[in-house]
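Table 4 source record.
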Amino acid sequence: MKIIIRNIEPLQNANIILNGLTVIAGENDTGKSTIGKVIFSIIKADNLAAVRLKTGECIAAQMAAQRKNLMNTMIGLVFDSQISSEGEVLVEDEEMPVYSIHFSQHQCSRFDCSQADSDRFLLDATFIQTPFVWDLVDFFDTVLRLKQSQELTQNMAPFSVKYPYIIWDVYAKISNTPIEKDFQTNELVKNIRQIIKGGFEQRDKRIVFQRQNESILLVNVATGIKYFGLLQRLAENQQLKQGHLLIVDEPENHLHPEWQLLLARLIVNLVSQHKVYVLVNSHSPYMIEALKVYSDMTIKEQTHFYFNQLTNKGIEVDEVSHDLSPVFEKLSLPFHKLEKTALEINSLK
């Protein structure tokens, strides 16, 4: 699948291939997360429209309007109603059009879909932005109870709380345990449990980190463990399976370099063994190099690397799958600056 992005702030032009594993490297504020948010929003809008059609809330003739309206809802939730004054996103599969979405004055003005509802390329998307979703579980539980109370009590005052939708989506997926487990992910879950030496489990109506016979409250769990815990719960709850997209935003922010390598191996395994599509945004040389090494072993033809960098023409997005040296040169500059400073200090002694 090819995603063409034009004039979506802050990106002027980007062509991205999503065919298994896609890695977008670059410094801060170069539009890495924007690409993931755009794809996430499109998939959510289309899938929510499909659900409304299936449940009879709309008819086939209304689908274009449904997609457009739902895309505008996603723009408000994900982009805080600021996406593009005049832009478009085109999605193609084997050079055949899938989506054509146009934006004007930060609103979706048109959302065309050329595929049948039964042939949707991506069934769902999950965007992992931060492991601190675990710290918001009690808050989201309260929000959910208030929402349910409002639905049951018609004379109740309107309830409205602004919360980050991307994090809410992850919360819903890690807290709602399906009746039937996905046994195809047993090895994946077992691997994660071995890494963190425990697991996230439901105990007395709340989730805790269980290590042997000890139940540890979420507030007392290390951030790196929480990150792997998200993947554990997503896998157990059937959210990491064929046809799903996992977007991982700068995971290195919370992981030691050694655990970055372990996560990279897990990500490649998700693509190769479970047929999950994965998009990773990163500015960590450890993470990028690990994804390159492990993907070359099993999914080289399904892996694409991109480099976002700010130039005098704006942000440019270049494919660097065959040569990552520009990425490492750019990302290693801070180390060279420190090295130079250290030499200067030593020369004064």
